[in-house]
TrEMBL record:
Comp. bias (Low complexity): 36-47
Superkingdom per UniProt: Bacteria
Region span, Disordered: 35-60, 169-190
Protein name stated in the entry: Tetratricopeptide repeat protein
Organism: Dietzia aurantiaca
InterPro entries with a match to the protein in the record: Thioredoxin-like_sf, TPR-like_helical_dom_sf
Composition bias type Acidic residues, residue spans: 177-190
């Protein structure tokens, strides 16, 4: 979700960011991170060697371990792309210094996150890395591009340019430096209230508040997406088992996929159901599909594909 001004990400934003990590299973990392934070708070040494990650030099670089992965990668990648470099102190490479220099040059357009695989093996395992160095670009909590091994500077610049083009206009942008005296604190009490309800698990109130926000900001896709997320979560929590092949079963499957940010799968379930149902049932399915499509920009490739499939299913 977009966070205006210089406020830190809320718990609701972290939930939404984590839900977008559908490409890899990061749930284990989150559990271990919470355990490490609890151990640190109790004055005990974390279970992983090396403890929490220490911030790197400047806002464009950061060192990450399992305890800081959620905040420094998942949440931060809702703002700008995060380029994760898996490294090992036993085998340093020139790639690290090159990526660091390019990150500084980019001045916050993307973040260079280094992960020592010897201290945080769970991250390498979750990303299914096969070699060191390996590099992964993460945006919106989801890995979108990767490569292995050393790369010449020109090839690396081209790869980074492609990542920035692919994410242009889809992320909220870098958060202003909180130490900058000129940075403005732009309060957004309505959004704060909606996020607070979501973070507290009050889906009914969260739905009401996000619905009110959508009425006043219909063009803000991040808010529409948050509303659809909340609505799907509420329905999943209230629905019971349904007969296989029925309209309620198709709607429930789509809700489960939407909560997991698996938009393509949700679209497929609904369009497949539209093909075999007619009359009021078809209209119910079509309405739900169009509601979900509203959560994404009109030029999103997933939307274009889904609309073509819907047209084919209807006619």
């Amino acid at each position: 979700m977009t966070r205006p001004g210089n406020r830190p990400p809320s718990a609701a934003e972290q939930k939404l960011a984590a839900s977008l990590a559908g490409a890899v299973d990061l749930s284990g990392l989150k559990s271990r991170a919470e355990a490490q934070r609890g151990a640190a708070a109790a004055g005990r040494a974390p279970g992983q060697p090396g403890g929490g990650g220490a911030p790197g030099a400047g806002a464009s670089r950061v060192e990450v371990d399992e305890a800081t992965f959620e905040q420094e990668v998942l949440v931060r990648s809702t703002q700008v792309p995060v380029v994760i470099e898996l490294v090992s102190q036993r085998a340093p490479t020139a790639l690290t210094a090159l990526l660091a220099a390019l990150a500084d040059e980019a001045n916050g357009a993307w973040v260079h996150a280094t992960v020592d695989v010897d201290l945080a093996p769970g991250i390498a395992q979750a990303l299914q890395a096969r070699a060191v160095p390996s590099v992964f670009a993460v945006a919106g909590g989801r890995p979108i591009a990767d490569f292995e091994g050393e790369q010449p500077e020109e090839a690396l610049r081209q790869w980074l340019d492609a990542v920035l083009r692919a994410t242009e206009g889809k992320l909220s942008g870098p958060v202003p430096d909180t130490d900058d005296p000129e940075a403005e604190d732009e309060a957004d009490p309505e959004l704060d209230a909606a996020e607070e309800a979501l973070s507290e698990g009050d889906l009914v109130t969260a739905e009401e508040r996000f619905s009110a926000l959508v009425e006043t900001r219909p063009a803000d896709h991040t808010i529409v997406e948050a509303l659809r997320y909340v609505q799907a979560g509420r329905r999943v929590s209230e629905e019971t088992d349904t007969a296989e092949g029925s309209v309620p079963a198709a709607l429930r499957s789509a809700d489960l996929m939407l909560v997991a940010a698996e938009y393509d799968s949700a679209f497929s379930v609904l369009t497949d159901a539209i093909r075999v149902h007619f009359g009021d049932d078809r209209q119910i399915l079509r309405t739900r599909l169009l509601e979900i499509l509203e959560a994404l920009p009109a030029d999103d490739p997933r939307v274009l594909v889904a609309r073509r499939e819907l047209a084919s299913a209807l006619y």
